[in-house]
Write a structure and sequence with these properties.
The chain is of the alpha+beta class and 287 residues long. It folds into 2 domains: 216 residues, 2-Layer Sandwich (Beta Polymerase, domain 2); 64 residues, no CATH class. The chain is 55% helix and 13% strand. A 5-stranded mixed β-sheet has the order 3-4-2-1-5, sandwiched between helices. The longest helix has 22 residues. The protein is globular. The relative contact order is 0.12.
Length: 287
């Protein structure tokens, strides 16, 4: 890992955030006690000045899944299909947070995993808003610094050389979006880059210096990624209270649909998720 990339990541993770975001992160960490190691804030809300009415996105990094939960089945679910995702509210803000161990966070940001979910997100800007100590902080920096080289390396085989380095990022993100079930409109991968083009220009050279071309094709990534998205959706019906309403809200917000959840779907969220999926795929609300 070049010092330049690590320095860029460390500075970005340390940038200031709204004080309410920090308090929310502290409350999330407190919920899981001594197992909590770090909390990262990421996603579209990172670019918003007005947070009221939005759903903020966090990752909670823990030392060990068993230590993080009172219930063994939650630890097992987190280990088998990471991450677990939970809703949270504090200080007038609504949020959801995903839970990963330090070991999984490091692994899932690197090229040793075909799954795009973590490294595609942390190749984008994020903030480290809470850490239990300096060791936890530096481990988070090191893990996040793996994400951008992994993104660009995974995209190198299908990419031809591009004169515009921003197009390389846009096309790389577009590939990752195709490997998950996503509710965002077409062009979302480009808007992520266009929101802060100077940031991606700064990251290009140091990330490319560490990028290793991926060996697995994107056809395989898409099949595995969408199957994993379905598995996570099913798991969320058990771990995420009100998850089916959140899913509908997010799809309506990003895809412009008007999905309404019926009472029976709230009573049986797993069946609701399964029943909604074919219609959403046919309509193009998720891809």
């Amino acid at each position: 890992m070049t010092d330049n990339l690590v320095d860029l990541v460390r500075a970005e993770l340390g940038a200031p955030v709204d004080a309410r975001v920090t308090r929310l992160a502290e409350a999330i960490a407190a919920k899981h006690g001594a197992a909590s190691r770090a909390v990262l804030f990421y996603g579209s809300c990172l670019r918003e000045a007005q947070l009221d009415g939005l759903m903020l996105d966090f990752y909670l990094i823990v030392s060990d899944y068993r230590a993080a939960y009172d219930k063994r089945w939650l630890a097992l679910a987190n280990r088998l299909i990471p991450p677990n995702v939970f809703p949270f509210e504090a200080d007038g803000l609504a949020a959801k947070y995903a839970v990963l161990s330090e070991a999984d966070f490091h692994r899932l940001n690197g090229p040793e995993t075909r799954g795009v979910s973590v490294w595609a997100r942390f190749a984008q800007p994020s903030r480290l808003v809470w850490a239990s100590d300096e060791t936890a902080r530096e481990r988070s920096v090191a893990a996040v610094a793996r994400a951008a080289p992994t993104l660009l390396g995974s995209a190198l085989p299908p990419l031809t050389p591009l004169a515009d380095e921003l197009d390389m990022w846009r096309r790389a993100f577009a590939l990752t979006y195709s490997a998950e079930l996503r509710a965002e409109r077409k062009g979302r991968s480009g808007s992520v880059v266009d929101a802060d083009p100077d940031r991606y220009r700064r990251f290009t050279a140091p990330a490319m210096a560490l990028a290793v071309p991926g060996t697995s094709g994107w056809t395989r990534r898409r099949i595995e990624g969408k199957a994993l998205s379905v598995a996570r959706l099913a798991k969320a019906s058990a771990t995420f209270a009100g998850g089916v309403d959140y899913i509908a809200w997010k799809i309506n917000r990003h895809a412009g649909t008007q999905i309404e959840i019926k009472p029976w779907q709230r009573r049986h969220p797993l069946l609701a998720a399964i029943s909604l999926l074919p219609r959403l795929l046919r309509s193009g609300a998720i891809r």
